Amino acid sequence: MQASSYLIEVVFNLYLMVVLLRVWLQLARADFYNPLSQFVVKVTNPVVVPLRRIIPGFAGVDWAAVVIAFAVVAAKWVALYFITGGQISTRLGVVGFDLSSVPLLSLVNIIKEAGMLLFWVLLLRAILSWVSQGRSPVEYVLGQLTEPLLSPIRRILPSIGGLDLSVLVLFIGLNFLNLLIGEWFYIWQIV
């Protein structure tokens, strides 16, 4: 049962990250013809395009993709409910949940996964900046995604000997926010 729960969480969370990346790419107006953008579009188009006929985009947000993200997480929690009988293991121990809490769990899960996606994109961008010989297409898109978050930090924090510490400051801020919200809301620690 634990192996099945793990597999369900991994598969659903990976697809959720791709859907969230699609939304983020559109919000950042990243290069659509970049190979990374094309991968994200091709993986998510089979579910987003049919729904887009019903739910149009508005204010620069692809609301069909947002609904798909919510549906993916809700399907994950429903699948976990039926596999585990409503009992999930967390770092706090075994916690029970029922189907009426799926919408709240889904919303919190989407917010946490968006934070995790931001963390991984920042980490990948930092690593690529150390090892890349030139501007790779992936590095270019990662820059388009993260630059709106890093440039305000760079304006405040001066460059120290050629080192850009803005990513480190953002990591610390993200971790602080995660811990702070975890202290305020018990459900944040469950998801």
Write a brief caption for the model.
With 191 residues, the protein is mainly alpha-helical. The protein has one domain. Helix 5 (137-156) crosses helix 6.
Describe this structure in words.
The chain has 191 residues and is mostly helical. It has one domain. It is built from 7 helices and 2 strands; from the N terminus they run αααββαααα. The chain has helices spanning 2-27, 35-52, 63-84, 102-131, 137-156, 166-184, 186-190; strands spanning 87-90, 93-96. The chain has a two-stranded antiparallel ribbon with strand order 1-2. A hairpin with a 2-residue loop joins strand 1 (87-90) and strand 2 (93-96).
Total number of domains: 1
Poorly predicted runs: none
DSSP helical segment count: 7
Q: Could you say which overall geometry the principal axes of the C-alpha atoms support?
A: globular
**How much helix is in the residues?**
over 70%
What is the average per-residue confidence, as pLDDT, rounded to a whole number?
84
- Strand arrangement, major sheet: 1-2
Distance between the termini: 18 Å
Biggest pleated-sheet summary: 2 strands, antiparallel
The SSE string, one letter per element, is HHHEEHHHH
